[in-house]
């Protein structure tokens, strides 16, 4: 190392020490503010100490941010706007409450609430300084200014770094070691897609099997992806047959890697692997969608049930009331109904639908459609918290955070570990339900809220609506960037020329258009959540003469008043699929019939 480099690094170390000292002084003043607010809320307002700690943190966060931004980092070449820095600072301080509050409650039993609050603040000071200095105010720019070293400027999450195979070098530090003797889970989706996973996937429990002899189409492993050290920005990198997603927390966080060369191999980092719902929803289902397209099927976001001798589908926008409608139909007509799916249905161009019975995500409002005694009292009490966090508003807030430079997948994973989503298989909610493996769809209802209206949708409008509803189910990161890297070989995933995402999407649209064919798609609006009554009447007691498909016809009706609210996500019409032989699922399915 030259004398100039030594001087530069010495100057940098001195500058860093001054920054840490200034940050410490601001932090000390923030401790005073936090302690004062904590005293006010505990002694004068008589708040619980956990609530007082949360409220006091909001005040000290604002205080610390203003002083840090104006005094500790004045005049720095900051690349972010002040409100971006504030939001990241606020997120960091509130995320630390996950550690602080339990520690506070524990220490308060020995040293009193005020000393316990001060102790927890001091314990987390170093971590907060490191995060603030590295990721909020970006002092890596200061390193370049002092030492003359280049500044790495990774791309934002919505911009892929495209690399050739020979450029995929050791700088990525991809460590794919998996645990020895790891337990494996096996899923066979109607004989179409075989999945072997080191992560339990509850959404696929209906398709769980003991094992299969053929090679899996999708393999999921636990491992380490990316550098151990943390990075300052989300990075999504693609090279031929490979996609890597990395976030701020390094290889222990929510990184994952997808190999698409010969079949599909997915490696998920430890934190992501611990959140099985996020692994499936954010990574696996997107891959499963296009593997099915590659095999001539489409995964439509919709609900599918059988009423009488007809198989019908329901499609709806987010937070409309589809799940409550399905539950009512099954609960009120147990001897004349069957269940295929609530969220996704596998369909083909012949008008056939294969079941895809994932656990239903419910809310307190949805539960009104069934006997509330099917859940225990603690489950019903917890449901109020779960449905609030995993509601439409919660998802919209998460999507807003996803636009910022924060580890959104890691935050989502931690949230779902601490507060699991309220998911239940349909037979837990409606014990009399009958599972069906397949059916031929006779009609589709697109339900919505508004003035009473019933009309047939034109063919092209129906295609666009169902495609839009499907896309709505894949709005959370990193799907929008990962899909650009998806390339699949048409023949058993390992033979033939690769098809890119454009061809796969074109094929998906063709499957849907062929499926709809002459199938009637009815738009059904109701102001009072009465779709279940109307659908039952239209299917089991149809009018003497039905209008021709594709010819818009409007009529009004007076639906029976029964309010069933639903916080679930958007749905889409599903397509029936042929009966296929497959291994018997490990899940016990009461009353299952084909």
Attribute tags:
594 residues, alpha+beta, ten-stranded mixed sheet, nine-stranded mixed sheet, 18 helices, 16% strand, globular, disordered C terminus, GtrA_CellWall_Glycosyl, membrane, transmembrane helix, transmembrane
Could you explain how this protein is built, in words?
By secondary structure, the chain is an alpha+beta fold. The chain has 3 domains: 145 residues, no CATH class; 127 residues, no CATH class; 258 residues, no CATH class. Helix content is 41%, strand content 16%. The chain is built from 18 helices and 21 strands. The strands form 3 sheets. Strands 10, 11, 12, 13, 14, 15, 18, 19, 20 and 21 form a 10-stranded mixed beta sheet that branches. Strands 1-6-7-8-9-5-3-2-4 form a 9-stranded mixed beta sheet. Strands 16-17 form a two-stranded antiparallel sheet. Helix 1 runs antiparallel to helix 7 and helix 4 crosses helix 5. The radius of gyration is 27 Å and the shape is globular. The C terminus is likely disordered.
Unreliable sequence segments? 139-173, 545-594
Largest sheet properties: 10 strands, mixed
Number of helices: 18
Radius of gyration: 27 Å
Assembly type:
single chain
| Mean pLDDT reading | 75
Taken together, the total number of domains comes to 3
Estimated helix fraction = 40-55%
Quote the distance from N terminus to C terminus.
Answer: 75 Å
In one word, what is the shape?
Answer: globular
DSSP strand tally: 21
Structural class computed from helices and strand pairing:
alpha+beta
Percent strand equals: 15-25%
